[in-house]
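Q&A log
Question type: sequence-to-structure
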Amino acid sequence: QMNMVRVQFKGIHGWEVTALEATEICRALPEIEQALKDSTDLSLKPTKSLTQEPVGKTDWDSVPAHQTSLGPLIGCIVPHLSRDLSGGLYEVHNVAITGVSSILSDEKVVMACCKECKCQISTDACSEHPEAGIEMRWFLELQLAEEGGTAQAIVFHDVIVSSKLMLDPGPPDLTGISAHDEMVALTSKPVQKFIRQMKAIPWTILLSFQKQGYKDVNSLVVRMLTPTWTEQGVVGTWSPKPLPQFAESNACPMAAAAEIGYDEELQMMTVKGSPVGAVRLLVKICAAESDEETAAPDANIGLRATRRVRCYLDSDGPEYTIMASGLFTSVQWLASAKDDEVFFVLARCRDASLKLLVSTHNVIKQESKDDFMTYFEACVGRKPGVELTYPRETTPVARKRKLDDMTELSAAQRSQRIRLGGA
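Response status: OK
Response body:
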């Protein structure tokens, strides 16, 4: 007997029969059954697997996506209630990568995989493709933050090695590297250097949902990473339009220094009166006084560098103090910064003095200042969007449907760079 059934596609590992919202199994129509039997020759060797998705073949750059912020995406994820949330791609601009962590139990950031099927292997060869050989592939979890909230997302090898990252020198080359090499550890110098590069700039990220049955939870997966702003301009789909928001107290917005405050009762930093986890600023280094100490040893952390700055959006405004601490190599940028040099920084303050501890930085070149200034001002001045709320009893599928209905699909022109200002 031949039956018809709805099935769900599960990555590169094949097809899985699973219950969907309207699952129905019924007897196949006689004409369909006979047509399939007549056109099928089971004696032939298959030349193409219909149950295997071509790895790395999707050009995500050309796929339209819903423009949103991180908060509404995280709001769709309900703990211990995983659902099929496939069928949607989401684009988030101006994202800060605030951290990178390992997903693997051995704290490595790469895994040994079969060159043929790309599946992880724990032996010297793949059981299904013993002659294919082994290659090392990136497998990370990113901590993301922007004005709409924070999120964690899984990122795979093809995204990390993509030319769309536009980083120089980019990720370490894994050619000839084994799973036991120290270079693949999260704490290795090459990996840490790569992570610092990723933390220093704002990103445009394409995300989709992925169901993890063994954890009974939905996860976010990164499909594409590209800088929101480069010296060539912003990505073609970027816009200062308001986006749906979701209540989130750990956001990391771009802001003017004058908007920063500190809530003594909550013991939290604020921007425009709302609690935030961190803030991204555009600052200009003030000239150091003759007796000003810009760096001092610290018995606990190595070295502490301190400089006075002004907000680049208000060059005549008040001065603020920024700090960086750690080993000499990690604070040298601040201790030796030139007068009037401009930096894009991610910082936090721990008390009402508003002294800002910088965790990541990126120097803005002289020829790029006008363009970056226009982009930064547009981000700071963007009006808040409609607040999106999900009643507690709302299912993940209903939440995703509500988000899709409230967001616009972006045009597929991310590769195009738009100049906003300057020469």
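Response note: The radius of gyration is 25 Å.
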